[in-house]
C-alpha cells in the first residue's frame, strides 16, 4: 500500500511539471507555428527534442521499484505525435526509449518499446484527424490506451513473468490516472489556446469589416468645405463621425440646375457592413432621382419603391430631403421619418421645423410622400441632424436630448455653418464625457445669405 501511495505522489509531481512546461510552450511562437500548420523540419526537430527531454524527465522523476519505473515517460512522445505526426512522435519516443533502456532493469526493453509505441499512437491519431488537434476527451482516451499497451508489452516481453505481473498490478492504475490527467491538462491548454486564437481571428475579422464599412461610409460623402466657394448665396457645412460600431448615416448636396441646390441627410437602420452598403445604394438612388429635376416627394416615392424590391433584410432609412432656390430662399422639402430639423432664424429664434412627415423609405411599396415648402430669409439657417446627436448618452445613460441641442445652437446665432457644427459637436462630446459613442453623429447646416447682386439685376432686367 505504501508503494502505491509513493507511486501516486511521484507521478502527480511529474505530471504537474510537464503541465507547467506545456503551458509555457503554448505561449511561445514555436507553439503558434504548429497551431497555424507552419510545420517545418526545423521546428519539428525542435519539438522532437523538447518532448524527448520531457520523456526523459518523466522517467527521472518517476518511482523506482523492483528495477522498474512508475513514470510519465510516454506522455512526451504521445504529445509530440499528436502535435506533428508519427515522425515527431517516434523521434521523441526514441530519445525517451534510449534513456530508459540504458537505465537497465528486467523491464528495460518492454518499457523502451512502449515509449516508441506511445509516440506512434499519437502520430497515427494525428493522421486520422488529418492534422486537426484532438479534443481533451480524445486525448485522455489516447493516454489510457497507451498505458494499457504499455502494461501489455511488459507482460509480453519482461521476464521473469511473476515480477512483470507484480509491477503491472502495482503500477498500471496509477500510471493510467497520472498520464491521463497529464494528457488532459496539456491538451486542454492547447485547446483553450486554439479557441483564443479563433476568437482573436474572429475579432480581427469583425474589426476589418467595421473598418471597411467606415471607409465605404466616409468615401460616399463630400468632405471638401466650403463646397462651392464661388457661390456666396449660401454657406454650407456638414460632418459625419461614425461610431465604433458603424451605422449607415449619410449626407449629400449638389446642384440640380444653376440656381437650385439639393441637400439631404439620412440614417439607415442597422449597423455594420449591411447598413453601410444599404446606405451607399440609398444615397446613389437619391442623387440619381434628384438629378432628373423631379420634386422631392416624387424622388422619395421612386427611391422607396426601388429599395423595397428584394429588401429581404427589411432595412429602411429615414431621410430629410430638400431643394433650395438660391435666388429666393424658397425650400421645397419632404421628411421621410427623419428627426425634425432646427430652424435658426437671423433674429435668434429657434424652433423645430414642423412638417406633415411620412414613413421612412424602403418600408412599404407605393408609400406616399408629402412635398412642403418654407422660406429662408437672409441670415436664416436650417440644421439637419441624425439621432446620434440627440440620443448621444453620457456614462449615466442619459440622452443629450433635443433641448440641449437647441441650447447649444442658441449660443452660436449669427455664426457661420462650420462654427455651428463645431459648437454642437463640442457640446455632444463634452456631455458624453468619454462614454462610448453608440451611433453615428451626422449634422448638416445650410445658412442662406441671399442672391448675388448680379443675379438680382439680371432678374430685374427680365421683368
Automatic annotation (TrEMBL):
Topology in the lipid bilayer: Multi-pass membrane protein
**Single GO biological process annotation from the record:** cell wall organization
Name the Gene3D superfamilies for this protein: 1.10.1760.20, PPM-type phosphatase domain (3.60.40.10)
User: Is Transcription among this UniProt entry's keywords?
Assistant: no
One of its Pfam families is: SpoIIE
Q: Where in the cell is it found?
A: Cell membrane
Q: Listed GO cellular component terms?
A: plasma membrane
Q: Where is the PPM-type phosphatase domain?
A: 233-448
What keyword terms does UniProt attach to this protein?
Cell membrane, Hydrolase, Membrane, Transmembrane, Transmembrane helix
For this UniProt entry, which segments traverse the membrane? 7-25, 45-63, 75-95, 101-126, 133-158, 170-194
SMART domains (alphabetical): PP2C_SIG
What the entry lists under SUPFAM superfamilies is as follows: PP2C-like
Molecular function (GO) terms for this protein are:
phosphatase activity; phosphorelay sensor kinase activity
Question: What is the recorded name of this protein?
Answer: Sigma-B regulation protein RsbU (Phosphoserine phosphatase)
Amino acid at each position: 500500500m505504501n508503494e502505491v501511495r509513493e507511486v501516486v505522489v511521484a507521478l502527480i509531481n511529474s505530471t504537474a511539471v510537464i503541465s507547467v512546461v506545456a503551458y509555457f510552450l503554448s505561449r511561445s511562437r514555436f507553439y503558434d507555428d504548429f497551431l497555424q500548420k507552419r510545420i517545418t523540419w526545423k521546428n519539428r526537430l525542435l519539438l522532437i527534442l523538447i518532448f524527448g527531454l520531457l520523456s526523459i524527465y518523466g522517467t527521472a522523476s518517476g518511482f523506482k521499484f523492483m528495477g522498474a519505473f512508475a513514470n510519465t515517460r510516454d506522455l512526451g512522445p504521445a504529445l509530440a505525435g499528436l502535435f506533428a505526426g508519427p515522425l515527431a512522435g517516434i523521434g521523441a519516443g526514441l530519445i525517451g526509449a534510449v534513456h530508459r533502456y540504458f537505465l537497465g532493469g528486467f523491464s528495460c526493453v518492454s518499457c523502451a518499446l512502449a515509449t516508441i509505441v506511445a509516440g506512434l499512437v499519437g502520430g497515427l491519431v494525428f493522421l486520422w484527424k488529418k492534422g486537426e488537434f484532438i479534443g481533451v476527451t480524445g486525448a485522455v482516451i489516447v493516454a489510457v490506451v497507451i498505458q494499457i499497451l504499455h502494461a501489455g508489452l511488459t507482460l509480453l516481453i519482461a521476464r521473469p513473468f511473476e515480477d512483470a505481473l507484480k509491477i503491472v498490478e502495482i503500477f498500471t492504475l496509477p500510471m493510467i490516472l497520472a498520464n491521463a490527467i497529464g494528457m488532459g491538462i496539456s491538451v486542454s491548454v492547447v485547446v483553450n489556446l486554439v479557441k483564443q486564437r479563433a476568437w482573436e481571428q474572429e475579432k480581427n475579422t469583425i474589426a476589418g469589416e467595421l473598418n471597411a464599412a467606415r471607409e465605404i461610409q466616409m468615401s460616399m460623402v463630400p468632405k471638401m468645405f466650403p463646397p462651392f466657394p464661388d457661390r456666396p448665396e449660401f454657406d454650407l457645412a456638414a460632418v459625419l463621425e461614425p461610431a465604433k460600431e458603424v451605422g449607415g448615416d449619410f449626407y449629400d448636396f449638389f446642384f440640380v440646375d444653376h440656381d437650385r441646390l439639393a441637400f439631404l441627410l439620412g440614417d439607415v437602420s442597422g449597423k455594420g457592413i449591411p447598413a453601410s452598403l444599404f446606405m451607399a445604394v440609398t444615397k446613389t438612388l437619391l442623387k440619381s432621382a434628384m438629378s432628373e429635376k423631379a420634386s422631392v416627394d416624387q424622388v422619395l416615392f421612386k427611391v422607396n419603391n426601388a429599395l423595397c424590391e428584394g429588401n429581404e433584410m427589411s432595412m429602411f432609412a429615414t431621410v430629410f430631403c430638400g431643394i433650395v432656390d438660391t435666388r429666393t430662399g424658397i425650400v421645397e422639402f419632404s421628411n421621410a421619418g427623419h428627426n425634425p430639423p432646427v430652424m435658426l432664424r437671423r433674429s435668434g429664434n429657434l424652433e423645430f421645423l414642423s412638417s406633415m412627415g411620412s414613413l421612412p423609405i424602403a418600408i412599404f411599396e407605393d408609400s406616399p410622400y408629402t412635398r412642403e415648402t418654407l422660406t429662408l430669409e437672409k441670415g436664416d439657417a436650417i440644421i439637419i441632424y441624425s439621432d446620434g446627436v440627440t440620443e448621444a448618452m453620457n456614462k449615466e445613460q442619459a440622452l443629450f436630448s433635443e433641448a440641449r441641442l437647441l441650447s447649444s445652437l442658441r449660443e452660436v446665432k449669427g455664426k457661420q455653418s462650420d462654427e455651428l457644427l463645431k459648437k454642437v459637436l463640442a457640446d455632444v462630446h463634452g456631455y458624453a464625457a468619454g462614454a462610448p459613442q453608440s451611433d453615428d453623429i451626422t449634422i448638416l447646416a445650410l445658412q442662406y445669405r441671399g442672391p448675388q447682386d448680379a443675379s438680382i439685376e439680371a432678374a430685374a432686367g427680365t421683368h
